[in-house]
Design goal:
Number of strands: 13
Radius of gyration: 22 Å
Largest sheet: 6 strands, parallel
Shape: globular
Helix content: 40-55%
Strand content: 15-25%
Strand order of the largest sheet: 3-2-1-4-5-6
């Protein structure tokens, strides 16, 4: 019987997706599911929901326990085979608000701020220390467990775990599974080339992985996709309607490859689009500034409306999702191989990226665990853009590991968007202001 510990189990909808998927896998149906959170109300809601699912789709075979607060964390982790991480340190209020509002005083605008940029740096500074505490506990009470990280910034947090602990860790995102479907839908080609029939090959880094191949019945679809994208973009940029995917399509035409994560994300990983000196680009490319705070507000309001439908619905059911979590656990338990897109240390898988970078590559999973597949060199423009983001990731990880304030400054100095907008003095002052504003949410830096 496997033990699955879910850290951040108050994320009720996500817990339903991951753990509901597990209940639909024969190899995992008898699991002990240990739910851990620091919010008693959300923990109770998730337990109620999962008890219902366990009864309705799993004949009550799983054992579900709850573990509230720091004092019971080791209890939740003890003997775990798999640990799923879905925490958000500091939440929307106050930390996400701080990540957006303080940079605005310097004229630095963001869209999502959870992966790179000044927001991604500070989200890492407050989250990675907590995750390394998890790692210390796991090294004591479940040293052989697999740590499945779903929390952003994916590359910095997963890379930090792998560089700083002995815990077997893989980072898992949602964008790899749907990248072909997204580009076909964005260009109106999804009916002609049904996504279920399309083969893809993706590699790079999280949220800036490259769709290196996209084929339908052996035919390379890129020429058709690019021709259609160029036609659509020409009209959209002139004001003939707008798409939410314009930045990605524009960069595909400039570089040659489509990127895994959305345009609102990508626009803040680059120095080209969100520019105070060229505000017209925001409208031209339909870039939604302050998008993540809006989503948070809507999600909080939406949860109030839907919570009863999930936590108090006696007829609640579940259909298996595209998430990789249950597939990893099932493959390890049964030794039936599965292929995923996972975030792991490079170690030569992509030779023209740094060896300690956290890369997103095809991985084989079986009873030996998650094993990265050799990719080879990326096309040099793709690798070059990846390296601009990896620079920030590596310095931010080092800032946490060594508690060095200068590394925070340097990570921000090398961030493509921040460096394109602010002077060196402004960057240093902004970092100091954010450290002060976050207060107790951050460790002390020297």
């Amino acid at each position: 019987m496997a033990k699955i510990t879910f850290l951040g189990a108050g994320s009720t909808v996500f817990a339903k997706n991951i753990l509901g998927d597990c209940m639909l896998c024969e190899s995992l149906q008898d699991s002990h599911i240990a739910l851990y959170d620091i919010d008693a109300t959300r923990l109770r809601e998730s337990k109620s929901m999962l008890d219902t699912l366990n009864r309705n789709i799993n004949q009550g075979r799983a054992t579900i326990t709850t573990h509230l607060g720091l004092a019971r964390r080791k209890e939740a982790l003890k003997g775990a085979c798999y640990v799923v991480n879905a925490i958000q340190v500091g939440g929307y209020d106050p930390c996400t608000i701080t990540d957006f509002e303080v940079p605005k005083k310097y004229g630095l605008r963001q869209t999502i701020a959870d992966t790179l940029g000044i927001g991604g740096i500070f989200r890492t500074l407050r989250t990675l220390p907590v995750m390394l505490d998890f790692a210390r506990d796991m090294e004591e009470v479940c040293p052989e467990a697999w740590f499945l990280n779903y929390t952003n910034p994916m590359a910095m947090l997963t890379g930090g775990m792998l560089q700083s602990s002995s815990i077997r860790t893989v980072g898992l995102c949602h964008s790899v599974q749907v990248v072909s479907e997204t580009v076909l839908r964005s260009t109106g080609l999804d009916r002609k080339h049904p996504p279920a029939e399309v083969r893809q090959y993706v590699a790079g880094i999280n949220h800036m992985g490259w769709l290196l191949k996209i084929e339908h019945k052996g035919k390379d679809l890129y020429p058709e996709i690019k021709a259609r994208a160029a036609e659509l973009l020409a009209g959209w940029r002139k004001g003939n309607g707008k798409s939410g995917d314009m930045v990605r399509l524009e960069m595909m035409l400039r570089i040659g490859y489509y990127i895994t994560e959305s345009s609102e994300h990508l626009s803040e990983y680059l120095p080209h689009f969100i520019k105070a000196a060229h505000p017209e680009l925001i409208e031209e490319f339909n870039i939604p500034l302050d998008e993540y705070p809006r989503r948070c507000v809507n999600q909080i309001a939406g949860w109030k409306k839907m919570s009863k439908a999930i936590t108090a619905n006696p007829d609640l059911r579940h259909e298996r999702t595209r998430e990789y979590g249950s597939r990893i656990m099932d493959a390890i338990e049964t030794d039936q191989p599965a292929q995923i897109g996972g975030n792991i240390l490079n170690r030569g898988l992509i030779p023209n990226l740094p060896p300690l970078a956290c890369v997103e590559v095809p991985c084989l999973v079986d009873s030996n665990g998650v094993q990265g597949c050799y990719v080879g060199d990326l096309p040099e423009p793709c690798a070059a853009y990846n390296r601009t983001n990896i620079n920030v990731q590596m310095l931010t990880i080092e800032a946490v590991r060594e508690r060095r304030r200068d590394r925070i400054y340097q990570a921000a100095m090398l961030d493509p968007h921040t460096a394109a907008e602010l002077t060196l003095d402004e960057i240093r002052n902004l970092c100091d202001d954010l450290i002060k504003a976050h207060g107790k949410w951050l460790p002390k830096f020297k």
